[in-house]
Write a structure and sequence with these properties.
Belongs to the 'GDSL' lipolytic enzyme family. This is GDSL esterase/lipase At5g03980. It comes from Theobroma cacao (Cacao). By secondary structure, the chain is an alpha/beta fold. Helices cover 41% and strands 6% of the residues. Helix 5 packs across helix 14.
């Protein structure tokens, strides 16, 4: 029921299909269906694009990154991590899997769209790693720069030593185990999708919360981008032919930052009540990353390298929170958390004794003040799949 009108299933499906189709139109045509898109955006979900990546015929996905995509590596390194126990995983899995959310992550929705089972974490010794699945090397809390490099700049990486370079070493070891030689690896990996990131956010998180100024963090960005660029070149050297390189979120919209850098100056905030200064750091990171991808495309013409626009996927979500069924009063509050204006405290985070969980996570964008809810990831994934798919140059 919408605006008092009752739609039959077939009519609803037709409208949904029309809206999904309109997403692929050019700007002038899209404007003609703006009203239709607004009325039925509430129906929009990854189901618009469910299975669309199957046309790419990927037989595996290999993921590098941090907590945005970790499906269980950190909890193998640190079984005492809060991500190893409820309420993490409570919505989908009814149990903690090491995912930093109440349920599925964007990589899970990407795998579903590609027809590939959820990625097992590399450090899960009980996992069956076979072709047609893929492997997740991402570790929550990891950094793009080696922890030793960060330490030289007086930045401590407190969660894990498994930075991007170590994950790449794991990947190399894994491929050595499944490939007879370099030629065999190239043959096997040409039908795989590689996700290099999101990574780098923690480099900035740690620096900022350890007292570094915005200018000091800004000076780190070129080094972080170089580490990501080198990682992409390395996976292409292994045999990757399709690589997605996601950018950073608008970090000034996250409760952890809204709490830690709260300002009495109303001009410090944008129309979404996000902190402009922090978002500008993310924008600069993404700008340099997109430039690096352009250079990589020139240097590696046989690989398709695609930018994953996490920033605009998140902002798209914020623009449509009410239509998508989120509680507009809780857009920037943590579902699992306590304290202050944003239900978040660094000293009493989600999973700590006595920290409450909201009754309906589907009404929240933020799960624990740092990571998003399954529902938020679901809609971001749908938007991303739509934007990434044409650039992957798959053939139906």
């Amino acid at each position: 029921m919408m605006h008092g009108a009752v739609l039959s299933h077939s009519r609803s499906q037709n409208f949904l299909e029309a809206y999904c189709f309109s997403l692929g139109m050019d700007t002038s045509l899209r404007s003609q269906v703006l009203v239709l898109g607004s009325l039925f955006l509430v129906l929009l979900s990854p189901s618009c694009f469910a299975g669309i990546l199957k046309t790419c015929q990927f037989d595996a996905i290999y993921q590098l990154g941090d907590s945005i995509s970790d499906t269980g590596n950190l909890i193998r390194e640190d079984p005492l991590s809060p991500f190893a126990r409820l309420p993490y995983g409570q919505t989908f899995f009814k149990n903690a899997t090491g995912r930093c959310s109440n349920g599925l992550l964007m990589i899970d929705y990407i795998a579903l769209s590609a027809g590939i089972p959820f990625l097992e974490p590399y450090l899960n010794s009980d996992a069956l790693f076979t072709r047609g699945r893929g492997v997740n090397f991402a570790v929550a809390g990891s950094t793009a720069l080696p922890v030793e490099t960060l330490a030289e700049n007086n930045v401590l990486a407190p969660v894990t030593n498994s930075s991007l370079s170590r994950q790449l070493d794991w990947m190399f070891s894994y491929f050595n185990g499944i490939c007879r030689d370099e030629e065999d690896c190239v043959k096997k990996l040409k039908t795989a999708l590689f996700m290099v990131g999101e990574i780098g956010g923690n480099d900035y998180n740690y620096a900022l919360f350890q007292g570094k100024t915005f200018d000091e963090v800004r000076s780190m960005i070129p080094k972080v981008i170089q580490a990501i660029k080198d990682a992409v070149a390395r996976v292409v050297g292994y045999g990757a032919t399709r690589v997605i390189v996601p950018g950073n979120f608008p970090i000034g919209c996250l409760p952890i930052y809204l709490s830690g850098f709260q300002s009495s100056d109303s001009t410090a905030y944008d129309r979404f009540h996000c902190l402009k200064g922090l978002n500008n750091l993310a924008i600069h990171h993404n700008k340099l990353l997109k430039h690096a991808i352009k250079e990589l495309r020139k240097d590696l013409p046989n690989a398709i390298i695609v930018y994953g626009d996490y920033y605009n996927a998140y902002q798209k979500l914020l623009r449509k929170v009410e239509l998508l069924g989120f509680d507009t009063k809780s857009t920037q509050k943590a579902c699992c958390g306590i304290g202050g204006d944003y239900d978040f405290s660094l000293t009493r985070m989600c999973g700590a004794p006595g920290v409450p969980v909201c009754s309906n996570p589907d009404q929240y964008v933020s799960w624990d003040g740092v990571h998003l809810t399954q529902k938020a990831y679901k809609f971001m994934a749908g938007w991303l799949i739509h934007h990434i798919y044409p650039q992957l140059q798959c053939r139906a």
